Records
---
Amino acid sequence: MSGHDLTLPERVTQHDPISIFEVGSTAHGISTGSDDLDLVAIVYDPWDSLHGLGSFGTSVYRTAAERTGDDNARSEPGDVDLVVHGLRKFCTLALKGNPSMMMLFWQEPIWSDEWMGPLPLWAFQSKRVIRAHIGYLTEQRERMMGRRGQKNVKRPELIERYGFDTKYAGHIVRLGIQGVEYGLSGRISVPMSRTNADIVRAVRNGHMALSEVERYATNVIAELETILHDNPLNLPERPDQQVVSKWLQAVYGRRLIHQIQEARLYTG
């Protein structure tokens, strides 16, 4: 865990939190000591958004933006980036195989409301997770090389020192390692093993040339395509959305009963 103060941000407690995770480089075990604090909170959707006209999906709070007044301000060491997902939005993203959401299934939260109970992980498991890793890897490789959209250059000091954004390259290598791990074991290790973390840190510290990172990305995409075809874990084509939907209904049904019972206690 990082040296940052992990007291629940006021922004989270404005909602109704279920779990809060530290994500980003520190959580993966690949920090080089100059990272901000990245948090993801999963919260109960407000009743207004479930049964009324309100809406709630994802909210983002960044201390760098609040500190500078610039929404695009770059986070610095000591800053906090907080992403808040409603439970339904989290499930929707996980059902799509989103790597950032799926890895939370194997990560210890820094705070959790145990009352909700475990999520049905097996219902989220499918080939879709591997396909999502392939898609993100392909897009990030093309952006890194400037062949797709705007070249992702957020760290000019790294460009000046190494000739390319080595932190972004490290993200690509990490994503590849975790995608292969999922395809072969059905899980994603957070933090990464020491060996894999050392590889990613080496990339971030400029010990791998841009051409080598591109070659790695190309090779790992091909490896993931092979895993997808061979399917050694016999993963289903798609997750079981019906099971997840029924689980969500049960969670919010129990929560409503719980809140009614609490209200009766307070009103005597």
Note: The longest strand covers residues 17-23.
---
Amino acid sequence: MSALRQATEAVLKRWDSPAWDWNAEGPTADLMADLRAALAAEPEPVRWVHPSDLELPCCAAFAHPTTDAAKKNFVPLYAEPPARQPLTEDWVRSRCAQSWVFETALQWARAVERAHGIGSKE
């Protein structure tokens, strides 16, 4: 857990404690709600692995890089996968060799996304 995440969680824990004598509403409460939302929105990697270790997962050596520069050389691993986003129409269009295939390819892509819980349910 990063130092920033630990500090944020400590502030939120203190805010939620009975000894804290602030109003449940107002600018400070709004800031606390923003902190909670930010923590929930960005899961923290549980481990980091070098890309070459992904080829032989039985031999992977996990790392804990501490600087942003060091993290560029590793792949983050999450306890839960990040939310998946639907493909953009531009991405689908760029993969269609013929322009007349686009609408069918887009419908197919959206059906596959829905089957995997990605995007809208329509």
Note: The chain has three domains: 3-41, 47-77, 84-122.
